[in-house]
From TrEMBL:
InterPro entries: Methyltransf_11, SAM-dependent_MTases_sf, Thiol_S-MT
Identification of the protein by name: Methyltransferase type 11 domain-containing protein
CDD domains, per the entry: AdoMet_MTases
Molecular function GO terms recorded: S-adenosylmethionine-dependent methyltransferase activity
Lineage of the species this protein comes from: Eukaryota, Viridiplantae, Chlorophyta, core chlorophytes, Ulvophyceae
Species the sequence originates in: Ostreobium quekettii
One Pfam family this sequence matches: Methyltransf_11
Residue intervals of the Methyltransferase type domain: 121-219
Length: 290
């Protein structure tokens, strides 16, 4: 039988091991299944969606035979969409960055003074608009920029180079399943990213995991408007369009509630509106400590 249905057999074994152990967030069943290199992944079960209970043996067998895994981490990306989005995004944010500069300067003040060798992770680094806040004349942090859009890589690297941030690394990967050891970073940063990840709870759990004890997560995000407001209603109506046009960006995320629920020891945050941004106006910024 193993020869006839190799995928089904591997998937069943994976289901057995799943029911035997509760997987830690960030553990991928897909990689546990160990599909041989070069073969199409044929496993729909996936722990990237941590909200799902472990599937039954029968479901596992059927899914393994019938369908590939479709979670955000396993789904193939469109190279042309990524490249176009990266190019448009990196050329369209100047006025937003200018408006937010005083606030970012204040928020990232501690990072600018980061000791040489301090490790900073930026989740969803994009073209690197925040990198300038980590480099100073005297100190250069060791910065890792994580992003699943490889098209952002050249822009982020060019930004780092222009700032003299020689210890910058662009890593292709997802916030929901970071390819880093527990406690690997002194600080983490995320701006305009929790609107775009598929699973904010998993992403925030990963942020906590990769920060050392006492490490800090610096965030700035656009969020859903106040309950009952016309703005919020408009956000719900137009969020699907925004997701299609802006690489999965949701207008309706209550990211501050998600951060508060993520198990950080302390969350210090404020809400503010960015004038002229209409449905994207409501923002939050702050620091969460592990
Ligand atoms: C709106 S851009 C923000 C870029 C940058 N942080 C900024 O403030 O301009 C969102 C970024 O998050 C990245 N992203 C989307 N889904 C992600 C995920 N699951 N994990 C990590 N990054 C993600 C996108 O590729 C994109 O670069």
């Amino acid at each position: 039988m193993a020869g006839l249905f190799p995928d089904a057999m591997t998937t069943m074994r994976a289901a057995d091991s799943l029911s035997a152990t509760r997987l830690r967030p960030g553990t991928s069943l897909c990689s546990r299944v160990g599909t041989p290199k070069g073969r199409r992944q044929r496993v729909i079960l996936c722990c990237h969606n941590h909200a799902n209970p472990p599937p039954s043996r029968r479901d596992t067998l059927l899914a393994g035979v019938l369908a590939p895994c479709s979670c955000a981490v396993c789904r193939p990306r469109s190279r042309w969409y990524d490249d176009i989005f990266a190019s448009l995004y990196s050329h369209s944010m100047d006025s937003y960055e200018e408006t937010l500069a005083p606030r970012k300067q204040k928020l990232f003040a501690n990072l600018q003074g980061a000791k040489d060798g301090a490790t900073v992770l930026e989740v969803g680094v994009g073209p690197g608009p925040n990198l300038k806040y980590y480099s100073s004349k005297d100190h250069k942090a060791k910065v890792t920029g994580l992003d699943p859009n490889n098209g952002m890589g050249p822009y982020a690297r060019a930004t780092a180079e222009s700032l003299g941030l020689s210890d910058f690394q662009f890593v292709d990967g997802y916030a929901e399943e970071m390819p880093f050891e527990d406690g690997a970073f002194d600080a983490a940063v995320g701006t305009l990213v929790m609107c775009s990840v598929e699973d904010p709870e998993a992403a925030l759990s990963e942020v906590r995991r990769v920060l050392r004890p006492g490490g800090r997560y610096y965030f700035l995000e656009h969020v859903v408007g106040p309950p009952g407001s016309l703005l919020r209603a408009g956000q719900y109506v137009l969020s699907p369009l925004q997701q299609a046009l802006a690489d999965g960006c949701h207008l309706t995320r209550d990211t501050l509630a998600s951060i508060r629920a993520a198990g950080f020891k302390d969350v210090d945050a404020e809400r503010f509106d960015v004038e002229g941004l209409s449905l994207l106006a409501p923002h939050i910024a702050g620091v969460a400590t592990v």
